[in-house]
Design brief:
GMP Synthetase, Chain A, domain 3, alpha/beta
């Protein structure tokens, strides 16, 4: 593997990064979308993102404008991201599984003036507008231009340089992350955030120009986006799958000559459940970077596929924060260690007042340093609540040993994590409680071997009302992404309360060793 590029301070924005990559490696393969067969060299990517940027300007998109992007994994997604940055606009990624309520909220909260999408999602976005919701300009990557929809391919023809001069402080993304007390919050991520994250990962893991990186996550998440930034920085190839398929994942890794990839959440557990294959070690992967590796599976993962898996920790709000280096990896397998802070980042284990705790004690992990988010968009209260002075509150419990290594313990936030998706309990409760038959709703996480956690909801119906799980689940499915809809349903006459009349979720969680007992399982269609 070649020596990684030690990127210096001059590059702070995505436009400069793309231009420099095009000048250094014009004909070298850059992007390969496996499902669609789309391939771009560095020069082609730079020219096409110019063309899209110029086309957006011709449609009236101005610097500072917020533009939604609602697309499946295809080359248009990273092109749109960099194109928007090149004209000083901001991308707002939308989950393709959003329905009316969650999509409408993001479009309104982010003040999107346009959405780059495909014909597949035009009906949903049109319906939102007709129902009195946000009505942004719709720009389709494959549409006919009918019904007020602009057609991007027809006008993206001018491949000359875009006129706007971007800097590291220009806002590249408003990246929404599930909140713990209500609706998702929009993290304001400037260009410099992405460049700093790319530099840290390229240098920490020696990502060189001969690397073949792979991403299997949707491009509306941050992971494929920092993969793009890393590949542009290092001059290497990035392969993108349509999504994560555990049954075919390693076959794709072998066929595409992948040398490095990142995964998270339930992915390792799903991969370990797949049948063994005599050829499964016939790959070129030199290492895997992974978040939330199950400690009990860590050694088994490495033994099975014959490559090191290095734990890493990061958040949408803060970027790349901690990681286990290859040098320290061997001694830390299976310990739950998430490594040391990366460049420009400090970590503190603190008590409720933000004061540092002694080594070995469990407390909330706080992070400090440059190139984090600029705050939550249009939400000063949430921004203030997320900080202890200059320290960011992660909401995660951890401990630090005498050598400065950090060990993850658990969550303090009220968040449910299902198959890598962060689900706000409050958001789901609000939708369920909006059903006319429901008086109260309370969601809790239920441990699950495959998904990590599943959602359980406790329901108190209105006096005299009747509703079954299927009716309430349909109510949710019509308004929320499928992964947010509870699997387990329990009906009560009332729920335990705190002295301040809040639902005492700790009491609910402690009622039974197995919270599935007595609940309706929507997936298996049985009462447990």
């Amino acid at each position: 593997m070649s020596t990684p590029i030690r990127a210096g301070a001059p590059i702070e924005d995505l436009k400069t990064l793309a231009v420099r990559a095009s000048e250094r490696w014009p004909d070298r393969p850059f992007l390969n979308f496996d499902e669609t067969g789309e391939r771009l060299s560095f020069a082609q990517f730079d020219r096409r993102s110019n063309a899209i940027g110029n086309a957006l300007v011709s449609l009236g998109i101005k610097p500072g404008a917020k533009v939604g992007v609602m697309l499946r994994n295809c080359v248009w997604h990273p092109l749109a991201w960099v194109a928007l940055s090149k004209i000083g606009a901001t991308m707002v990624p939308l989950n393709i599984f959003y329905k009316h309520d969650d999509a409408s909220y993001l479009l309104a909260q982010a003040e999107c003036v346009a959405v780059i999408t495909s014909d597949e999602f035009v009906p949903l976005l049109t319906l939102i507008a007709k129902a009195g919701g946000p009505n942004p300009m719709l720009i389709s990557i494959d549409g006919t231009g009918g019904g007020g929809t602009e057609t991007l391919p027809a006008i993206a023809t001018d491949e000359g340089p875009t006129a706007f001069s971007t800097t590291g402080r220009h806002l590249a993304n408003i990246q929404y992350t599930s909140g713990t007390t209500g609706k998702p919050k929009g993290c304001m991520l400037p260009n410099a955030y992405w460049l700093a994250m790319a530099r840290k990962l390229v240098n920490t893991f020696s990502i060189g120009s001969e690397e073949v990186m792979l991403t299997a996550q949707p491009f509306y998440y941050m992971d494929p986006q920092w993969n793009v930034a890393c590949a542009l920085l290092a001059g290497c190839r990035l392969v993108a799958l349509d999504r994560f398929h555990p049954s075919s994942f390693w076959a794709k890794v072998r066929a595409l000559d992948v040398t490095w990839f990142y995964c998270l959440g339930a992915m390792p557990t799903m991969l370990m459940k797949m049948p063994t294959d005599p050829s499964e070690r016939a790959h070129k992967v030199r290492m895997v970077m992974c978040s939330a590796i199950p400690p009990g599976l860590h050694k088994a993962l490495e033994d099975r596929w014959g490559t090191p898996w290095c734990e890493a920790f990061g958040m949408t709000e803060t970027g790349g924060d901690l990681a286990v280096s290859l040098e320290e990896h061997d001694a830390l397998v299976g310990t739950g260690c998430i490594g040391r802070p990366l460049a420009e980042r400090e970590a503190r284990i603190a008590d409720e007042d933000g004061k540092a705790l002694p080594s070995g004690e469990v407390g909330e992990m706080l992070l400090r340093g440059p190139n984090m988010m600029d705050g939550y968009y249009r939400n000063e209260a949430a921004t203030a609540a997320a900080h202890h002075g200059e320290w960011f509150r992660t909401g995660d419990l951890a401990r630090m040993d005498d050598e400065g290594l950090v060990y993850y313990v658990g969550r303090s936030k009220e968040m449910i994590r299902r198959s890598g998706e962060n689900i706000s309990a409050a958001e789901v409760e609000e939708i369920i409680a909006d059903h006319p038959s429901v008086n109260l709703a309370a969601c809790l996480p239920v441990p699950d071997d495959l998904r990590g956690e599943e959602v359980k909801v406790y329901i108190v119906l209105q006096p005299g009302a009747q509703a079954d799980p299927a009716t309430l689940a349909k109510h949710c499915l019509d308004r929320l992404a499928y992964f947010k809809v509870p699997r387990y349903w329990s009906f009560r006459d009332d729920l335990p309360r705190t002295p301040s009349e809040r639902i005492a979720k700790a009491v609910l969680a402690g009622e039974a060793e197995d919270l599935r007992a007595g609940a309706y399982d929507r997936v298996d269609g049985v009462w447990r």
